[in-house]
Amino acid sequence: MDLFISQVPGGRKKETVDTLKSGSRDQQVSGIVTTMFATITVIRKAIELNANFIIAHEPTFYNHLDETEWLAEDPIYQFKRRLLEKNGIAVWRNHDYVHSLSKDGVLEGVIEQLGWGEYYQKKSIVMLPETSLGEMISHVKEKMNIPAIRYVGDLSQKVSKILLLPGAIGGKRQIELLMQEKPDVLVCGESPEWETPEYVRNANEMGEKLGMVVLGHSASEEAGSEYLAKWVKTNLIGMPVFHIPSGNSLSIK
Amino acid sequence: MDLFISQVPGGRKKETVDTLKSGSRDQQVSGIVTTMFATITVIRKAIELNANFIIAHEPTFYNHLDETEWLAEDPIYQFKRRLLEKNGIAVWRNHDYVHSLSKDGVLEGVIEQLGWGEYYQKKSIVMLPETSLGEMISHVKEKMNIPAIRYVGDLSQKVSKILLLPGAIGGKRQIELLMQEKPDVLVCGESPEWETPEYVRNANEMGEKLGMVVLGHSASEEAGSEYLAKWVKTNLIGMPVFHIPSGNSLSIK
Questions:
Q1: Helix A40-48 with B196-205: angle, nearest 10 deg
Q2: pLDDT digit string (tens) for B199-253?
Q3: Is B192 in CB contact (< 8 Å) with chain A?
């Protein structure tokens, strides 16, 4: 943890959600698993692999701050907590730090997964050779292995400038960046329906060509955990490390 | 507005998002349109129908409080604002009040749309004759006219007790009600992916049979605006009133 944090410009943060959710700083690490969500399936695989340290990007206990008092009597929370404790598994969230690397580690991973490295211009902006919204969605579905994608806009509209915002940075911030960057399409993880999707719908209704592609939160950032596994390989030579995708929680019927 | 509010137990609220978003209290009403979102399409239809009062359930300007200072220079915001002003259209949000009727108006509308009136037990709880999660989803898709639905769980699991929470009441509140009611399935409008979907995924991983069905925010509450149109018909005899569904902003490819 300290080694990773030492590579983040600005170093240790006073206020961060990146805390240990189980285990302790002093424990000996037998192996590392990186993932988006420390699901029970991921924890079980880590146990099988004899890896007692999970680095997850997202919360373990269903809320941003991983507050657990309100869950204390809940059998699902208790099951997960006991599974971690019984098997001596430490879980660290690495969210704020990986996003704060001099090059945002999640964005790096996603750009690579999409094969857009040569088109990457600056933070969050990708300038593709001209294509259509429909074709771009097909490309993204294939590269990210997403069976179905939600979108707003006209599938035949032209797409070149992409505003790429993995995760869920909030509707207001997404809209502010749309106003500032004026891209052809926003590609994001998720947004409450009453925020960005309505803005983009209104833009289309007034005649603008603006697309919005909602990848799903997990799919949009999973490549960041792959990036983190590579970081461990490079920086902790000899440490067993595995990237286990937690996959999408939501299926589509 | 005053007539509706007079029927809400507790009456006028000090803190509410249910304010006029355009127009004034004094204007003469030529006709009323009810809808989920006052989209530009809905506004144009209202103008055609000579109805100068739109009652919307959700925000007009992409954030819960309809704050507009940050949008002042934006052409999409300006276009919508001008369209409303030029045509003298008043928009009132009726969200907190309709949910506060002695029987929540949105829930009433949704229960009727789903044909579940005889199975309705108490606020948010429906007890269906035993079916499977897959069959229940098919029923909901047909009744609500939703082309594809996101879900967590095993499609073959049995479903009888449903926790029905239209809209987006927040992951913590959804999970608290899951803990309290122990239903077979939660049917909701939306939830951030790192909250309720992860909780339900963990429940399934530990062997519980718990389903979650995400209708989409619009689909989950549109029937509430239909309910409101009926309310106007009953309470303002002779007033022209139209329910115009704003439909889902997000399509699926």
A1: 50
A2: 999 999 999 999 999 999 999 999 999 999 999 999 999 999 999 999 999 999 9
A3: yes
